[in-house]
Amino acid sequence: MGEIKKHTITEPWLKLSCGLGEAPFWEEQTHTLRFVDIIKQELHTVDLAKGPASHKIAASLDISIGVTGDIEGHDKGFIFGGKHGYGIFDRETASYKYIKKVWSEEELSDGKDKRMRANDGAIDSRGRFWVGFMDDPLIKDPVDEGVLFRLDPDRSLHRVLEGVTIPNGTTWSADDKHMYFTDSPTRNIYVFDFDAETGAISNRRVFFRWAENLDAEPDGHCIDEEGYMWSAFHGSGKVLRISPEGKVVAEITCPTPNVTCPAFVGEDLVITSAGGDEKPETMAGCVFKIHVGVTGLKRFRWKSGIETV
């Protein structure tokens, strides 16, 4: 086993106090970073050409957004997984509209639309948007009633996985033959066989299990151009680089235990975090950035027949 490369971040890139910073996303066409604060229901942006001083809260919303994705052919808006389902956010008006709500009439009667919310997800190579929904911890402690949904380009909605507790980190291997998915309280990052043509997943098994610190668990992750995974482990302050064989090869230590999600901006890794720690020196709720010398896999766009956004 080779030596694990270790890196330490000592200062924040953005000194913020996010309640739950998540979903960092590099908009390559405008060289902008966007991310959300799920708890405070905010959308944040940074003009990367100008740096941290350009940070702004682009929208304060009446719903939480957990994850976002770009839309093929429509740069003035993006798709999101939000409180009640899938929606489109309009950058020009800072407004949104739902395009597909996820719960059945029976589930609405059971109150799922009130106690649950979107958390994480991603768009696959065929333009399908996968989003996991979970119990909102502000309302109810999460239990295994969460669901991983898939919205196809024809706007058909599919329930892919049920019995999930906290869905996180959804990505695909460089050869598009495998899908990775995290259910955080299990401390497992799973891998499935993936059929890119149909979107079917099968043969679930454990890709990586967190066993170092039982107060921590895997959160969001991303894949680099070499096929290695970079996963945040909430509660540990660490982001690990994990080989396709499931071996840790590098470790980033951040000055807060509450790391949530990494994302690539060129050869830099941006890392969001959550609040909840009363010690200011831990920098909980800040955003961090570090040069890692490798780029991320291409982000795919949701394919849609939308005429206007």
TrEMBL record:
Listed GO MF terms: calcium ion binding; gluconolactonase activity
Gene3D superfamilies: TolB, C-terminal domain
Keywords: Metal-binding, Zinc
Domain SMP-30/Gluconolactonase/LRE-like region span(s) in chain numbering: 20-274
Claim: Zinc is one of the keywords in the record: yes
InterPro entries per the UniProt record, alphabetical: 6-blade_b-propeller_TolB-like (IPR011042), SGL (IPR013658), SMP-30 (IPR005511)
Active-site feature positions: 219
Domain of life: Eukaryota
CC cofactor note: Binds 1 divalent metal cation per subunit.
Chain residues that bind a divalent metal cation: 22, 168, 219
PANTHER family: REGUCALCIN
Family per similarity comment: Belongs to the SMP-30/CGR1 family.
Entry protein name: SMP-30/Gluconolactonase/LRE-like region domain-containing protein
Organism expressing this protein natively: Lophium mytilinum
